Every structure is written in C-alpha cells, then in structure tokens.
Amino acid sequence: MFNLTLSFSQFGIQKTHFQLYDCQNESLKTKQLQRDKQPIHLVTTKIRQLLQFTQTISVIPRTLTQPNAAVYNDGLDNENYDLIIRLDDVIINEKTGNQYIAKELLGVGTFGSVYRCVKNNSNFAIKIIKNINAYNIQAMKEIKLIRFLNKKQEHEYIIKLIDYFLFKNHVCIVFPLLGFNLEELLQETKYQGLSLHMIKNILKQLISGLEFLHSLNWVHCDIKPENILFTDNTAKQIQIIDFGSASELNVNLYYYIQSLYYRAPEIILGYKKTCAIDMWSVGCVAAQLYLGYPLFQGTSSFDQLSKILGLITITNQELIQNSPKFNDYFIKENQNYVLKHLKKYENEQTLNLHDPGIQNITNIQELYLEFNKSSLRTIQEMATMEDFVDLLKKLLEFDPVLRITASQCLQHPFLRDFQFNINDILKQELQYQ
C-alpha cells in the first residue's frame, strides 16, 4: 500500500479519506464508501495540485550558508558578507570554465567559509572569502604565497593550490579535500591525548613543513590543531593549511597574530615576529596532543602571559625590561620585574576581563606525573618520554633567540630516532579504520 495521506491534509483531504490501495486486498464496499465521501473529480484535481506543489518544493535547494537572509551584494551576500550558497549551486571559474558543485559546508572562519564541492566526480574544498576588501587583500596574499611555495617545491606537508578565481565579487580558493584536523582527532579520543608514537609522526611532518617554510623566510603565524589536517582518514600524513596570516620575515605587523592559546610570549610583549613564534606554537600543539587539552588556556593576552610565566622560567630578564609593552604588564619590585595584579591591569587598560582559567600544569616536569597516571602507555613510550619532555622544554623556551629551530628539532633524539613499533602500528590501524 502506497500512502499519500500525510501530505494531503493541507488540501482539505482527511487522513482516512484517500489512499491508493492494492485493489486485490480491498473490498468493493470499502472502495464505494470512499468514492461517496470524496468525489473522484475532486480527488483527481487535488492530487494534481499536490504533485505540482511537491515539484515546486523540490526545486528549492537547501541553503548551506547561515544566516541565509540576503542583505548585501545585490542580495547575493548575507549580513556577514558571506556569499549565500545553496546545495548544488555551481561555482564557476569563468576564465577556465571549471565548475564546482557545492555539496556541503565544511566550516566557517574569520575570513570566510569552506565548502565541499564536486568537479568531475572528484571532491575539493573551496574557501570563499567574505566580500570585505581587507579580507580580499589577505586572500590574494595567501594565494600568492601558496603558489610560490608550490612552485618552489610541492612539499608533501604543505597544502596544494588547485585553482583560484573571482565569483560574484568573492575570492574563491580551491584546495584538495583533506581529512579531519588535530582538534577533531583529540575530540575523538574524548580529549585523553594521543600516544607518543603518534605524536612523533605528526610532529616530524609538521616541523618538516615549517623547516621548508622558514627556509624561504616566511612565518606561518597561526600554527594550531585546527590548521593541521590529515590527508585522509587513516591519520598518517598531515598537511599544514591556512596561510592567510602568514607573513614574510622582514615584514612588520602592527596587530596581534597567532591564536591566543598558541601565541608566543614575545608577540604578547610587543617584539617583532621571527620564525621562532611558529616553534612556540608547535610546542603548545605538542603538549596539547599529549595532554588532550591546551597547555595555556588564557582568557586574554594578560591571562595568557600570566599562565606562561607560571610555567616557564625566564633566564634573560632583559626580555622583560626591554619589552615594548613592559609598562602594560609589569611593575618593578625590589629589583625584580613582576606581573601586575589583574585588577590593576584592568583599571589601567579600562578593561573588564574574564576570570582567569585554570592552569592545570605548573611545571613541564609534571608531564611525567600525567604520564604515570595512565595505564595505557607502552614500554616504547616510556623509553621516549624523557626525550619528549626535553623537546617540549626547548620548544617552549621563553627567549626566542634560544628557542630550538625547525632544523634543530629534526635532529632532536625524540624525532631523529623516529620509528614505529609494529604492534603500535597494527593497533593504530585498527583504531582509525
């Protein structure tokens, strides 16, 4: 029995009044009663209306962009200056004729949105930049940089640029469709952290990509778990993405860079950026991969600096004394430089900051305690734990001049002696298939 009654109520046909029955299973008397209750010409007319209505509904595609109310760009953009994209919309590079069919919203960021699109049965990720001039300029810089990097060398740990074009006043950048990011991987572990052998694999690839970038005098400026993606769902190879904040080494930036949890202390203190800020972020990512949660969970730049100083020992006091923002954050007491109290900082800056978050780790050596709490660690991991903590200390060196470089990292025992235990490989394969 094929039932159409659920949609008929809007046309005045009651649920029990009309159904398409299998004639062999229904008595003539029942069919006669139905015919008496609902004249056949009325039923036929209303069926036709229903089918026409259903066809009308089916051609209205589901909107992928939210909010979806038309506001700017002659009704093409929403209130956030994002291009409104619907399911199966065709995004066209008019110069080349390449057509990408929108299938899914993958994510929303500061600069725009990313969609999964299909072209010739292949999946791609298209980053559509907000229709804001400053963001367009930044997007063009990102395109220029990735083209430059790909031209120098198609590095296996750097995202590839497939296509770029202007569509309905929006810059569109086409990338290969990658897998999940490190934040999503940690979420799958319920934020319990990863095994050391898996952290080794990720770090060696991440640092190799940064070594290549730094050798060309470029700084990524936004290394964090969300910007490190696996190429597929086997969780083996990663690629670094999102070069929208990247900058040449000799270009001074007059605004905060790096996401707060991964921001190097010298950036907070107002010093010029160097490649060392990426290595600080790597240290923060490495600790997070192990712990399952961010090492420094500041609620503001002041709170972030406070948490860093609560964990990291400063051997060079001149970094504080000569800081361009010394007067913002510090006072001098008995020949020592100490961080201001939160209330004093708030009053001077006319700010009302959130309450400070919790600092779970107060010394990097405490990672050993976290390590020993787990009964899931293998013998191999126990043997490499000391090297891992040593690498973290070198990555989270407060003085950027003394901080370990990407090239030096690759020679560190934790990464230099990189190898998988075959049992760990098999266990990992089963876990992520």
From TrEMBL:
Signal peptide positions on this chain: none
Top-level division of the source organism's lineage: Eukaryota
GO molecular function: ATP binding; protein serine/threonine kinase activity; protein tyrosine kinase activity
Protein kinase domain location: 100-415
Sequence positions that bind ATP: 127
Protein name: Protein kinase domain-containing protein
Record's keyword terms, sorted: ATP-binding, Kinase, Nucleotide-binding, Serine/threonine-protein kinase, Transferase
GO cellular component, one term: cytoplasm
Provenance organism: Paramecium pentaurelia
InterPro entries xref list: Prot_kinase_dom, Protein_kinase_ATP_BS, Ser_Thr_dual-spec_kinase
